[in-house]
């Protein structure tokens, strides 16, 4: 038993280096995708201090809008532009109808509002697009498809999917853009002020409504990118909404307010769950990755309760 | 515009469903035979469920339009949305059973397992066509449950038999590795006992890859395991979003698609198409016809779909899952017809329906008579055998459509039947006091 836990997995990694490399790559891609989803959560949390339960369905809604428009004859890039507009309208609507009436309400009320929003978007999405899964229009958006295989030795093989490479590149660009937005722009700084204290931000003339609309729009764009990438790997369907909650351990690990935390957390969870499942999962019959991510996050929390990059807030009474 | 029309109709049906209403075509009436349909047009399994729901509803509506119902009595058809959720399924059952429901088609093994104990109490049969509890084929233990034309154990035995044929005989399976990827739910776990028995008997190694419901679109770990284990064949028991994702992942790891075989619920055109050109060669079991070349289907098109009385997209008609839904309703309709003949009543009850289903004899002549010659293998139910263990065939994805590539293959009845009876006995013991069969055999 001790051999199986402490020796055999490393022997396997040594004996099948190509497979180990493939596992690392899959972990990297999974991590990037988790990080993309987590980014959406982080944006909303930074602005309103609330966990946006609706982020998963926003991913589905954005993906379905894009594909649905294209299915109705709208050219792919026009559909992409219109989808961005739709996410903007959605952000504005959420700010006006959901968030604005709840200014200064306890966080739990805002959380409940996002749960309500989730079910509204599920119903509305099914009303508009139907319940059937749809094929993501990756090729039409000039996203690379296919794969490149690196063969070495007799049976050595590492396969890289081009869409996964594109996902990594797009995620890096989005993270960089959001980092600049938050740290170098006036709106970004205002957004951080709003996150710290709604009333204080209002008292210095920051428009809470405008900030919230902007941040929900940014989260919508992240959701669209996630929907495209994840949809290209499987399909765009309402099942994706559940996948979005894979970001939860990422947030626990990386901190709810940190963009770098979402990325690093995503990668740790991605690598951790793939390596854990492939090399240690068999010891307990497999299928450990769905809970292993939480174990990894909880272990980190033992040492950093605020998450890797979260802000350490001490409230004095 | 057509798409919008379809959406609007779908919505109308969905609204009717969610509000517990009756679909507009047929008002519920005391002089009608009431058929509730537990369906799912929403949620993660809607991709499969919509086609089945459309096929089931359209055939019954067509009978109303063309023949004025069955035996001169209209059918009152009501859908109830379950979302493939056992709790919602039971809620649908409880909400509709009091309307003189004739039969329940849960379309979920999880819901079926919940309804089995209720069937004998409420005297309403459960028809789990090609799914559900395999042991329910034992009519002596489960007089109120029907799983014609086949159980999952029949299906699993056919796959192993087919693999044996490819390898030059079952004796050549010794030392082979056969992978089994499945939805980690009652449905996917159902055939495991039989596969384990067959693995022991024929000397192959069974490798199991569970896909949790929440991870249906995130299967890379399972398929990395497949790549490392290098099974000689892969069998899939998938549903909903699991199927297209699995086929895509199989393509991704370059698994030889001609050695990848799905159960009859992993046989949707959308599922295979998701894998693109490289999915060519993927195989799946089937027991219902594919295509529109059947007079009954043409009647559905003309009287229901083209007439704007259904949310069905005409393009999806003739697909594997749509036609499977049609076959399901053929069995319902023939059960009603048989019940009317046996009891002499026009408006029947669940108890009469049980007699009808137990007398089901859908032979070649009858299939031709109802405009479905060659649509399915002739099937017969007896009081002892509620499944019949009928032959199934294997179809292969040619890149655009499924093509039948084998003749009808008989399940390994000699192996399966004793195991089914033992499992039925075990179920009754575990659920003691399980009621003894008191219903007389009407045949």
Layout of SSEs?
The complex is a heterodimer of chains A (317) and B (443).
Chain A: H1 2-6, H2 8-15, H3 17-48, H4 55-71, H5 76-99, H6 107-129, E1 147-152, E2 156-161, H7 162-184, H8 186-196, H9 198-203, H10 208-233, H11 240-243, H12 247-254, H13 259-280, H14 289-303
Antiparallel strand pairs in A: 1-2
Chain B: H1 2-18, E1 33-39, H2 46-67, E2 75-81, H3 86-96, H4 109-122, E3 126-127, E4 145-146, H5 152-166, E5 177-183, H6 186-189, H7 192-202, E6 205-211, H8 220-229, E7 233-237, H9 242-252, E8 260-262, H10 269-273, E9 283-286, H11 295-305, H12 320-343, H13 350-358, E10 361-362, H14 364-369, E11 379-380, E12 393-397, E13 402-404, H15 413-430
Parallel strand pairs in B: 1-2, 3-4, 5-6, 5-7, 7-8, 8-9
Antiparallel strand pairs in B: 9-12, 10-11, 12-13
Helix pairs in contact in B: 2-11, 2-12, 3-4, 12-13
Overview of this protein structure:
The complex is a heterodimer of chains A (317) and B (443). With 317 residues, chain A is mostly helical. Chain A has one domain. In chain A, 71% of the residues lie in helices and 4% in strands. In chain A, strands 1-2 form a two-stranded antiparallel ribbon. In chain A, strand 1 and strand 2 (156-161) form a beta hairpin. In chain A, helix 4 (55-71) packs parallel to helix 6 (107-129) and helix 12 packs across helix 13. The mean pLDDT of chain A is 87. Chain B has two domains: 2-150 and 290-385, Rossmann fold (3-Layer(aba) Sandwich), CATH 3.40.50.2300; 152-286 and 391-416, Rossmann fold, CATH 3.40.50. In chain B, 42% of the residues lie in helices and 13% in strands. Chain B is built from 15 helices and 13 strands. Chain B has helices spanning 2-18, 46-67, 86-96, 109-122, 152-166, 186-189, 192-202, 220-229, 242-252, 269-273, 295-305, 320-343, 350-358, 364-369, 413-430, and strands spanning 33-39, 75-81, 126-127, 145-146, 177-183, 205-211, 233-237, 260-262, 283-286, 361-362, 379-380, 393-397, 402-404. In chain B, the strands form four sheets. In chain B, strands 6-5-7-8-9-12-13 form a seven-stranded mixed sheet, sandwiched between helices. The N and C termini of chain B lie far apart (52 Å). Chain A binds chain B through residues 16, 19, 22-23, 26, 29-30, 71-72, 122, 126-133, 135, 147, 149, 159, 161, 230, 233-235, 237-240, 242-243, 245-246, 273-274, 277-278, 281, 286-287, 289-290, and chain B through 3, 6-7, 10-11, 14, 40-44, 46-47, 49-50, 184, 208-210, 212-218, 220-221, 224-225, 227-228, 240-241, 244-245, 248, 252-254, 270, 273-274.
């Amino acid at each position: 038993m001790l051999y199986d836990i402490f020796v055999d997995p490393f022997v396997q990694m040594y004996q099948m280096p190509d497979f180990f490399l493939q596992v690392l790559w899959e972990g990297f891609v999974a991590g990037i995708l988790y990080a993309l989803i987590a980014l959406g959560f982080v944006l909303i949390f930074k602005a309103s201090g609330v966990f946006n339960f609706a982020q998963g369905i926003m991913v589905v809604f954005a993906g379905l809008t894009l594909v649905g428009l294209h299915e109705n004859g709208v050219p792919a890039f026009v559909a992409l532009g219109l989808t961005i507009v739709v996410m903007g309208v959605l952000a504005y609507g959420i700010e006006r109808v959901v968030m604005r009436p709840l200014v200064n309400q306890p966080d739990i009320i805002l959380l409940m509002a996002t749960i309500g929003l989730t079910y509204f978007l599920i119903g509305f999405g099914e009303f508009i697009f139907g319940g059937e899964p749809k094929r993501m229009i990756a090729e039409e958006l000039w996203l690379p498809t296919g794969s490149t295989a690196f063969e070495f030795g007799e049976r050595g093989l590492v396969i890289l999917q081009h869409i996964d490479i594109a996902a990594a590149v797009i995620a890096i660009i989005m993270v960089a853009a959001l980092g600049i937005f938050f740290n170098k722009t006036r709106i970004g700084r205002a957004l951080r002020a709003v996150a710290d204290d709604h009333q204080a931000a209002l008292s210095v003339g920051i428009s809470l409504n405008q900030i919230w609309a902007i941040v929900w729009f940014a989260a919508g764009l992240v959701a669209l990118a996630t929907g495209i990438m994840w949809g290209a790997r499987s399909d765009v369907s309402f099942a994706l909404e559940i996948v979005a909650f894979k970001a939860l351990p990422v947030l626990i690990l990386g901190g709810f307010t940190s963009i770098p935390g979402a990325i690093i957390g995503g990668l740790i969870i991605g690598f951790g769950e793939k390596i854990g499942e492939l090399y240690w999962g068999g010891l307990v019959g497999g299928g450990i990755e769905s809970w292993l991510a939480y174990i990894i996050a909880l272990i980190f929390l033992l040492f950093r309760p605020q998450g890797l990059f979260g802000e350490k807030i001490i409230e004095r009474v | 515009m057509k798409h919008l029309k379809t959406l609007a109709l779908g919505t109308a049906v969905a609204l009717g469903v969610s509000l517990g209403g009756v679909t507009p075509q047929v008002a519920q009436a005391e002089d009608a035979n009431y058929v509730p349909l537990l369906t799912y047009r929403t949620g993660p399994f809607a991709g499969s469920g919509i086609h089945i729901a459309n096929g089931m509803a359209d055939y019954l509506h067509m009978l109303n339009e063309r023949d004025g119902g069955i035996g001169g009595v209209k059918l009152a058809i009501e859908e109830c949305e379950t979302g493939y959720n056992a709790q919602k399924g039971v809620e649908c059952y409880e909400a509709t059973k009091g309307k003189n429901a004739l039969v329940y088609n849960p379309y979920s093994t999880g819901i079926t397992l919940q309804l089995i104990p209720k069937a004998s109490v409420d005297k309403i049969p459960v028809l789990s066509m090609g799914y559900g509890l395999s042991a329910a084929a034992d009519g002596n233990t489960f007089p109120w449950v029907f799983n014609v034309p086949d159980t999952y154990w029949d299906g699993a035995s056919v796959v192993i038999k087919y693999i044996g044929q490819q390898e030059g005989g079952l004796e050549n399976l010794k030392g082979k590795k056969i992978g089994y990827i499945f939805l980690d739910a009652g449905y996917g776990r159902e055939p495991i006992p039989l596969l384990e028995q067959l693995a022991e008997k024929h000397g192959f190694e069974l490798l199991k890859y569970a896909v949790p419901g929440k991870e249906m679109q995130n299967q890379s770990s399972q398929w990395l395991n497949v790549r490392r284990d290098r099974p000689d064949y892969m069998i899939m028991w998938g549903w909903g979003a699991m199927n297209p994702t699995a086929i895509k992942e199989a393509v991704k790891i370059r698994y030889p698609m001609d050695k990848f075989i799905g159960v009859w619920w992993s046989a949707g055109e959308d599922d295979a198409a998701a894998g693109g050109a490289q999915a060519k060669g993927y195989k799946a079991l089937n027991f219902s016809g594919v295509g529109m070349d059947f007079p009954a289907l043409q009647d559905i098109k003309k009287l229901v779909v083209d007439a704007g009385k259904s949310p069905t997209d005409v393009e999806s008609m003739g697909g594997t899952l749509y036609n499977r839904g049609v076959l399901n309703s053929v069995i319902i309709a023939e059960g009603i017809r048989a019940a009317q003949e046996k009891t002499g009543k026009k408006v029947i009850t669940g108890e009469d329906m049980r007699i009808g289903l137990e007398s089901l004899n859908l032979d070649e002549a009858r299939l031709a008579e109802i405009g479905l010659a060659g649509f399915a293998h002739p099937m017969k139910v007896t009081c002892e055998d509620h499944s019949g263990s009928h032959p199934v065939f294997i179809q292969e994805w040619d890149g655009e459509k499924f093509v039948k590539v084998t003749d009808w293959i008989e399940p390994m009845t000699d192996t399966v039947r004793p195991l089914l009876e033992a499992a039925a006995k075990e179920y009754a013991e575990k659920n003691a006091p399980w009621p003894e069969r008191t219903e007389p055999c009407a045949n």
